[in-house]
Specification:
- The protein is α+β, with helices and mostly antiparallel strands.
- It is built from 1 helix and 6 strands.
- A 6-stranded mixed β-sheet has the order 1-6-5-4-2-3, with helices on one face.
- The longest helix is centred in the C-terminal third of the chain and has 9 residues.
Length: 90
């Protein structure tokens, strides 16, 4: 669930929103460590990684590739995050 301390912006205002190409995956675990909770999908390429509260493979992937946006998958909550804008997209 989005943290209230982080900024929010409209998806249409994010200059990276063209990178929202992939929003679903049948993968049920982190592609690096196999973690099955709190998964995020890279909306540029479909990579599935675990979140920062686990092993941060989503963030590692973004830093390595420059892909800016992730989305939650297989979670009870839903959000889209842009690393480059450091904001949740609504």
């Amino acid at each position: 669930m989005p943290h209230e301390l982080h900024p929010k912006m409209r998806k249409s205002e994010c200059p990276h929103n063209k990178e929202i190409k992939v929003t679903k995956s049948s993968k049920k675990e982190c592609e690096v460590c196999g973690d099955k909770e709190h998964l995020r999908i890279c909306t540029s390429c479909g990579f599935v990684g675990c979140c920062e509260s686990h092993n941060s493979h989503d963030t590692e992937h973004s830093k390595k590739t420059g892909h800016p946006i992730i989305k939650t998958i297989h979670c009870d909550y839903d959000f889209i995050w842009c690393y480059k804008c450091n904001a949740y997209l609504e």
